[in-house]
Amino acid sequence: MFIILRRLNYPCLLQNLQQSAMSIYADVPKGPAIEVFALTQAFKDDSNPNKVNLSVGAYRTDAGVPWVLPVVRKTEICIASDEQVNHEYLPVTGLETFTNAATELVLGADSPAIKENRAFGVQTISGTGALRIAADFLHTQLNRNVVYYSNPTWENHHKIFCDAGFTTVKSYRYWDQNKRQLDFKNMLADLNDAPPGAVIILHACAHNPTGIDPTQEQWTELADLMEKKKLFPLFDSAYQGFASGDPDRDAWAVRFFVQRGFELFACQSFAKNFGLYCERAGNLTVVQKNGATKAAVHSQLTLLIRGQYSNPPAYGARIVSKVLNTPELRKEWMASIQAMSSRIREMRTALRDKLVALGTPGTWDHIVNQIGMFSYTGLNESHVRVLIDRYHIYLLKTGRISMSGLNTGNVEYVAKAIHAAITGAGESAACPCDNKL
What we know:
Number of helices: 19
Strand content: 5-15%
Shape: globular
CATH topology of the largest domain: Aspartate Aminotransferase, domain 2
Structural class: alpha/beta
C-alpha cells in the first residue's frame, strides 16, 4: 500500500498512515526499577539453596517464613463469622473506631490533645498514603513548599513530596558513616538553616534505614530548635510497638512534641506492628492548638481523599480496630510485638558476636545499638555486590539489611560472607556455602 501511495504522490496520506500506526505510548521512557522489589524478585528467581533475602522490610520467623500474628488470625475469623459485617463503603475518612484507636495509640489514652478535642485521625492507604495526604494538605492548604528529610531516609519520602508539588526538597545530615552513629551536631546545624515554616520529616522510632534514633535529651534539643525556628514536625511512625515491643516507649518523641505545644502530623502504618503488609491500613493523626480548626481541616482532608481514592479499604482497619478496642485481644497483640522485637534483638546480637569472633575488620557494636527492622551495616557497594553475586545474599546497595531476614539457620553463613567480602576473600576464597554449616 505504501508503494501505491508513493506512486500516486500522496505524501500527506502516507505520513498520516504512518502516524496512525504508531502508539501514543511509543515515546514513554521506561522508568528505573524499584530496588527493593527488584531484589526480592531476583531472590525468588535464584535457585541457590543458601540464598538469603535481607532486603525486604517484612518480618520473618526463625524458620524464614512470613508470620500471621495469632491475634490477627483469630480476629479475621471472628470478623468473617459476623453476619452483621457487610461490604458497604466506609466514610471518606475511614472507619471511626479505627481512626480513634490509632490516634490514641500514637498520642496516648491520657493525651490532653485528645481530651481537648484538638486531635483526630483520618484513615489512609497505610503509612505511604498518610504521607501523601499530609504532603498534599500542607502544599495546597498551608502553601508549604519546603521539606527536609534525613540523609539517609526511606527513599519514598523524596518522591512523595516532589509528586505533591513541593519545590524545595532538601536533606539534613543524620548518619555518620565513619563513626556509624547519629550525626547529631550536623543534624542540628542543617535544621538551623531551614526557613520558618519548613516541613521536617522525623522518624518517630526505629529510623529507616539506620536503626539509630535520637536520645530523649537529643529530642529535647530538636524540639527547642524547631520551636525557635517555627518548623513543622511531620512524624513518620511505621514501627510503633514493633521497634521495642512497647508502643508507649516507641511513641515517646511524638507525645513529647505534643506536650511541648507543637501542631503536627503523625503518619501511621500498621504493616509492621500488625503484620498487615498487604492490607494497607494507615492513619494520619492531626494535632492542632485548639479544636476550633478541626472542622475545616477535616473537611479539606476529606476532599483530598475523595479526589484520590474516594474512601479507604475496610478489612485491615476492622482488624486493627477490633484488636486495639478489645482488652484481651490487645493483650495478645502486645505479646506478639514483644516476640517480634525480641527475636530481632537476638539476631542483632548473634550477627555482631559472629563477626567479632571471625575477627572481621571494623567495629560492629552499632548493629546492637540500632533498633527496629533494619541495620545500616556500613558495608559499601563493592561489598554488597560480592554478597549478592557470590553468596546469593540480597541486600540494598547502601548496605542496609533487614534483621528479620536473619535466623539461627543462616546468621553464621551471612557473617562468614560479610567477613569474606570485607577482607577481599569474596572472589578467591571458598564460598561459605561450600562448607556444611
